[in-house]
Amino acid sequence: MIDSYFLRTGSTSKKRKLDDRETISEHRDSQTAGCMDDISNSGELSSRLSCFDNISSKQSLEWKKISAENLDLDYVQLFTKTEADSLFQQAERMIKYNANSKVFLHGKWHNIPRKQTAYGDTGLRYTFSGATVSAQPWSNAGFLKDICDLISTLTGHKFNFVLVNRYKDGIDHMGEHRDDETDLETGSAIASISLGQARDFIFRHADARGRSAKRKIEPVKLELSHGSLLMMNHPTNVYWFHSLPVRKRAFLPRINLTFRKMVVKS
Ligand SMILES: O=C(O)CCC(=O)C(=O)O
């Protein structure tokens, strides 16, 4: 874990260093939600589900609440190492990435420094930074739907889409941005699963960016570990930018899955 990070827990606003931070166990409503397209289909699903069959063990996990001004995050080590290793291997085997993903920034198209694709309910697509990523069907990578269902059960949030980013090493990265596109359901949470190389993840308040920053607000820095789940709750994405910076000493690949609730357009 890294420096200059403090958090406020519950109603107190005491500053604590990350290493001695308190954990908050949130017992969330179970069995309240599922992902939207139903692909359940015979024995294939039950064999895929083997690492999720003990859902009750996931319901007693210790969640950490991370808050700052208009920042509301929940973090948990959702999967054991064995489960996370198995999910990483399934991801490597089953996920098909788009060729030549680009974004349009500052008047030019740029290749993105990672690989990307998406899965989700039929017909959904996500447009950001000038690019549109269309969902492949859940049935092409059913374990993603299983993770989606698990997160929905644990958190009560429903999702219909997952954006997948693969970073081959610490040189691959994602620049500072907010997930505030109109394709996303207003006020919905985003659930981020990390598999593989642990990487730093940094939140910076919109008023505290760049040389002409209006205010001094400390960035919030986390390390996202193999098998972790980070919930980015509303209104975090209205006020805070986030990034996954280059880390030259990170050599292993990482796969990130961000489950989202997209607006369904008729
Ligand atoms: O890989 C990550 O953890 C970053 C993902 C992200 O920022 C996004 O999908 O908007």
From TrEMBL:
EC number: 1.14.11.33
Cofactor(s) needed by this chain: Fe(2+)
GO BP term, pick one: DNA alkylation repair
Main location: nucleus
Entries under InterPro entries matching the protein: AlkB-like (IPR027450), AlkB-like_sf (IPR037151), ALKBH2 (IPR032852), Oxoglu/Fe-dep_dioxygenase_dom (IPR005123)
UniProt keyword DNA damage, yes or no: yes
Reactions listed under catalytic activity: a 1,N(6)-etheno-2'-deoxyadenosine in single-stranded DNA + 2-oxoglutarate + O2 + H2O = a 2'-deoxyadenosine in single-stranded DNA + glyoxal + succinate + CO2; an N(3)-methyl-2'-deoxycytidine in single-stranded DNA + 2-oxoglutarate + O2 = a 2'-deoxycytidine in single-stranded DNA + formaldehyde + succinate + CO2 + H(+); a 3,N(4)-etheno-2'-deoxycytidine in double-stranded DNA + 2-oxoglutarate + O2 + H2O = a 2'-deoxycytidine in double-stranded DNA + glyoxal + succinate + CO2; an N(1)-methyl-2'-deoxyadenosine in double-stranded DNA + 2-oxoglutarate + O2 = a 2'-deoxyadenosine in double-stranded DNA + formaldehyde + succinate + CO2 + H(+)
Binding positions for substrate per the UniProt entry: 126-128, 180
Residues of the Fe2OG dioxygenase domain: 158-263
Protein name listed in UniProt: DNA oxidative demethylase ALKBH2
Organism: Acropora cervicornis
